[in-house]
Every structure is written in structure tokens, then in C-alpha cells.
Amino acid sequence: MYSYFKAEISAIINPESPCYTACKSCQRKVFVEDIITNCNSCNTEDAEWEIKYLMRLEVKDHIDKAYVTLFDEPRYLTGCSAEEYVDSFNEEGKDKDGPELSMWSSSAGLDADPFEEGTFALKVGEISDIMDTDSGVHIILRIG
User: Fold this and answer.
1) What value does the CA radius of gyration of the chain take, rounded to a whole number of Å?
2) Which residues are paired to 138 by β-bridges?
3) Which among 21, 117, 7 has a CA at the least distance from the CA of 68?
4) In whole angstroms, how far apart are CA 21 and each of 37, 42, 49, 106, 132?
5) Of 70, 80, 88, nearest to 20 (Cα)?
6) Which one, of 91, 51, 93, 59, lies nearest residue 75 by Cα?
7) Closest C-alpha among 121, 116, 54 to residue 82
8) For residue 109, which of 14, 44, 58, 124 sits 20 to 30 Å off, Cα-Cα?
9) Cβ distance 61 to 120 under 8 Å?
């Protein structure tokens, strides 16, 4: 099932952290502690990893609003890869002429836990069950 709609981005829900460290094997979130990388999905210690986008957007049209999770598509918004985006910040977290996401940031925000659990549990092409959160009802389609 596919849906088509025309909407505008009204907010980036996670402008401070639109990226995550992903296992190169399964694309699921890995945990980097000191120099050890653990992938719980592959049950691998010292897994190879890469930086990937996971950007949550609020989009709206003239009738309603919806929440969308993007994986690879944010490169079209930022003009760079996830790794380049992270590299655009210095060690203190200050922008070094990198992409500016704050123009879309939402003061309300969303509860990140249901989204992270839902998105990282999906394989590419899978659609989540209906998720009911404080901010509304959501369905996630993982496309990358």
C-alpha cells in the first residue's frame, strides 16, 4: 500500500540528533562505548558501523498534520550525507558552517522512545503497527 500526499515540513522533531550509528550488516542501531561497538541485533561485539540519518518530521497540509520518519532522504534537505552532517560540527557541538536545521525545530517535540523502538525494529520495506503516543497516532514505513 502506498499513499501520496502534498504537504510542507512544519517542524523537524529531532534537529539536535537527526543521525544514529548503524551496524553495516543489519542497519540497526549500535551502541558505541569507548572503542567497543555492540550490535544487539547481530549479537556482535566490535561491529563495523556507519552514521545514518533518522530524521523525524512534522508535515502538514491545509487539513491536518502527520509525522514522518526519514532514513536516507534527509540528504536532500541538508545537501550532505549523514557523516558529512556530523562532521560539520566541531567537538563542542557548535556548527562549523554545516546545514541549519533549527528553522524547522519544534518546541513541542515528540516522545522519542516509541519512534526509536518502532523504527529500529523494522526491516527495510516493513510497515509498523499503529503506534499511539502522546502526540497522536503514527505508522512508520522504513524505506532505507
Assistant:
1) 16
2) 131
3) 7
4) 10, 14, 6, 23, 26
5) 70
6) 51
7) 54
8) 124
9) no
Q: Which three cell numbers stand for residue 2?
A: 502506498
* Cell 499503529, residue located: 130
* Bridge partner list, 55: 70
Backbone angles phi, psi at 82, to 5 degrees: -60, -40
Q: How would you write the pLDDT of the chain (144 residues) with one tens digit per residue?
A: 666 667 788 888 888 888 888 888 888 888 877 778 888 888 888 888 888 999 998 888 888 888 888 888 888 888 888 888 888 765 555 555 544 554 444 444 444 456 666 666 777 777 777 776 666 666 777 765
Burial of 62 (C-beta count, 10 Å sphere; 0-12/13-18/19+):
exposed
Residue 103: phi and psi, rounded to 5, are -65, -20
First to last CA, the chain: 17
In order of 51, 62, 100, 136, the CA distances from 28 in angstroms are 11, 35, 26, 25
Q: Which long-range contacts (CB under 8 A, 24 or more apart) does 96-102 make?
A: 101/12, 101/15, 101/18, 102/15
> Residue 52: enclosing H or E segment and its boundaries?
strand 49-53
